[in-house]
Amino acid sequence: MTTPAPAPPSPAGKRGTSGEHGGFETHLIPTEHLPGFVAERKAAYVNTMFDTIAPRYDLMNRLMTFGMDRRWRNYVVAEAAPPTGGSALDVATGTGDIAIALARRVGAAGSVIASDFSEGMMRPGPAKAERAGVGAIVRFMAADALDLPFPDATFDCVTMGFAMRNVTDIERAFREMCRVTKPGGRVVCLEVAKPGVPPVRFLHQCYFNRIVPLLGKIITGYGEAYRYLPESARNFPPPSALKTIMERADLRAVRFHRMSLGAVAVHTGTK
Fold first, then answer.
1. Is 223 a residue whose pLDDT tops 90?
2. What percent of the chain lies above the pLDDT cut of 70?
3. Is the model more confident about 48 or about 116?
4. Domain CATH code at residue 258
5. 12 is a domain residue
6. Would residue 48 count as lying in a domain?
């Protein structure tokens, strides 16, 4: 088992006010299964972890979601609804799947920025974009989700997929996404959720907590990353609470849609 070496706190490691609003802004994560995890160094821990699993990240996603991640991403892009020739930002883009899907939507006259705190995660992205025929549309760059380096009202839409659990201040991240969105544009967030039906929830949690970490260890050789996944989801706000946080971040007409028997939820808000 590899434990990330301690690293100094980074800008993304700034913490919110942990006692407010039920602690969801700082998103407390259980640590009993995560040797080396320290809440104050969450950003450094996550950065190291994703740099390590990046080469097998896409394969692991396909396997553990049974290929459903493609359908989820397509729904995100449909909700974001960037215009042809428009501009889009995908925050915490990883290897760039959502950004590539957005690029197909905006077309050759449009532009997409794919940003991530982990430069290692983005390394496969440019080649993927080239293979998808959108290399000239998507630009990859390092950026902190809590301090996006873009002027106000820059993008027609802003998206994030399976990364809100990794930030240290959820409301601040949504405020930044809202800030850089043009008036009338949409902010869309795809995240894990817990199924509402008890038998389905039980089976989902068994798979999520037991099978996924084992599969992750086999596929990536770094099982700790896939122990982090269920731990980071355990105390994550349920869809209704996340909706409230988005509304506090000045987003309007916020709604959410559960998918795959409630295992994931897509939240959409308008600037």
1. no
2. 83
3. 116
4. 3.40.50.150
5. no
6. yes
The pTM of this model reads 0.81
List the 155-161 sheet strands across, edge first.
138-142, 111-116, 87-91, 155-161, 181-192, 264-270, 252-259
Within a domain: residue 108? yes
**Contact call for residues 80 and 240 (beta carbons, < 8 A):** no
Q: What one-character-per-residue DSSP string does 20-40 give?
A: GGGGTTTT----TT-TT--GG
What percent of the chain clears pLDDT 90, i.e. is strictly above it? Answer: 58
Backbone angles phi, psi at 138, to 5 degrees: -100, 130
Between helix 223-234 and helix 212-220 the angle, nearest 10°, is 150
DSSP the chain: ---PPP----GGG----TTGGGGTTTT----TT-TT--GGGHHHHHHHHHHHHGGGHHHHHHHHTTTTHHHHHHHHHHHH-PPTT-EEEEET-TTSHHHHHHHHHH-TT-EEEEEES-HHHHTTHHHHHHHTT-TTTEEEEE-BTTB--S-TT-EEEEEEES-GGGSS-HHHHHHHHHHTEEEEEEEEEEEE---SSHHHHHHHHHIIIIIHHHHHHHHHS-HHHHHHHHHHHHTSPPHHHHHHHHHHTT-EEEEEEEETTTTEEEEEEE-
List the domain range (segments joined by +) for residue 226.
23-271
Q: Which residues pair with 111 in a beta bridge?
A: 87
175, part of any domain: yes
* Tally of domains in the chain: 1
Of the pLDDT bands very low, low, confident and very high (cuts 50, 70, 90), residue 52 is confident
- Output 11 or 112, whichever has higher pLDDT: 112
